[in-house]
Amino acid sequence: MALLRAETIVAAFRDRFRPEAKPEVYRAPGRVNLIGEHTDYNLGYVFPIALEMACYVAIAPSGSGMLRGYSKDFDAEFSIPVDSIRDAQPRRDWTDYVIGVARELVKDNIRIEGADMLIHSEVPVGSGLSSSAALEVATAVALLGSQDLKRLEIALLAQRAEIQFAGVPCGIMDQYTAVFGKEGAAIQIDCKSLEHEYVPLPPDVAIIAVNSMVKHELGASAYHQRVKECGAAVEAIQAIDADVKSLRDVSPEFFVEVQERIPAIPRQRARHVVYETQRVLDFAKAARAQDLHEMGKLFVASHRSMQYDYEISCEEIDFLVDTAIKLPGVYGSRMTGGGFGGCTVNLVAPGSVAEFGSRLGAAYQERYGKRPAFYDCRPAAGAGRVS
Ligand code: GLA
User: Fold this and answer.
1) CA angle 232, 298, 342 (to 5 degrees)
2) Ligand 1: distance of its center to the CA of 338 in Å?
3) What average pLDDT does the segment 241-245 reach?
């Protein structure tokens, strides 16, 4: 399938730039996080899968001293002299993810030559499926070409690009998953040690992402705010135990002991993070035991915690979750990603997927006047060259 897509991308590249060009094609996947939300920047655990839906970059040297990128999806182009990448300034649009990554590579003394890039992504923007990390990591592997860089370094430099250039104080989950994704398995990432473990999922379950088709504006500022509130919780706990460096260092038992000393809002945020990290470990255990009922329960507990303690859900998403969990064959449902819209992720018995789609789709359409999109998510491989 990827090869077929690669051919289409090559044809589009020739169309746009030069008919005789022989570009290389690279891909990096989107991701759906199964559990462990907003735990990554608190150095806890996350449990995502990489998706088949991916961002593709076709690249060929141009010999011009310019780095040029054309997005097929936005029908927009940028071009920047290679010499001035180091001093580039953000433009607050899609080019930030590309130029931000190029800039990180240059800062790491990696050689970038004049090149043309054609970019096409299948990961829907604003869906909580990490279209930005897919674009960053696809750009990184395309610009690196055959130059060697450790895979973890690629994830970290893509994350730096997002924080420093695109201005989002994100954790490592999305870029890490785009790099380390694996067919047939979820990745349990320890965001403190930056190590991971692949965990096979039970065979008899479908993972369905449901796109609410809404993305509330509040999201970006609330993300910054949550990062700060977690920092405030850590500060309050440090007054009791100076060894606590992040919420990862706070066990559920210790949290119960110290919670009264944390101001109300940071306490609520910390409660989500501390128990969500524990839920990742419990979920991995349940997945290994193929206990779908337990996995489903943890999904719903995670959602309620995001809804009431972390306060990052929204009406449309709660409607999707509350409707889904009443449908036959649904083990669990929760919001996935940064919040305030985007997708839910659902564990559904394979025989019930069709009914799940038609009933949930109809209910949502009736309530909100728009049709949600459904994605059948199968764990796919991480970034690499496809041609
Ligand atoms: C966004 C960020 C991630 C992570 C999630 C929430 O996707 O990019 O680093 O914090 O939100 O789990």
Assistant:
1) 70
2) 5
3) 98
Pocket test for ligand 1, best of 39, 51, 170 (most atoms within 8 A of CB): 170
Q: What is the pLDDT of residue 52?
A: 97
Q: How far is residue 117's CA from residue 97's CA, in Å, rounded to a whole number?
A: 14
Range of the structural domain that residue 261 is part of: 206-376
CA of 332 to the centre of ligand 1 (A): 21
Protein residue whose Cα sits closest to atom 1 of ligand 1: 338
- Mean pLDDT value across residues 250-278: 98
> Is the overall model pTM greater than 0.70, yes or no?
yes
Catalytic residue numbers read 174
Give per-residue pLDDT as tens, 109-156: 999 999 999 999 999 999 999 999 999 999 999 999 999 999 999 999
Note the helical H segments in the chain: 2-16, 95-107, 131-144, 151-160, 173-180, 218-238, 252-258, 264-288, 292-304, 315-324, 353-368
Structure tokens, 277: 């990290």
Last residue of a domain, one of 177, 201, 225: 201
Residues 194 and 247 in one domain: no
Contact, 313 vs 303, CB < 8 A?
Answer: yes
Whether the Cβ atoms of residue 138 and residue 58 lie closer than 8 Å to each other? no
Nearest to 347 by CA among 359, 360, 333: 333
Distance CA 57, CA 239 (A): 49
Among 201, 228, 246, identify where a domain stops: 201
Under DSSP, is residue 341 helix (H, G, I), strand (E, B) or coil? strand
Ligand 1: does its nearest atom lie under 6 Å from the Cβ of 283?
A: no
For the Cβ of 41 lying below 6 angstroms from any atom of ligand 1, the answer is yes
- Between CA 176 and CA 151 the distance in angstroms is 9
CB-based burial, 237-248: b 16+ in 10 Å, e otherwise: beeeeeebebbb
Give pLDDT tens digits for 179-224.
999 999 999 999 999 999 999 999 999 999 999 999 988 778 999 9
- Claim to verify: residue 125 and residue 101 sit in the same structural domain: yes
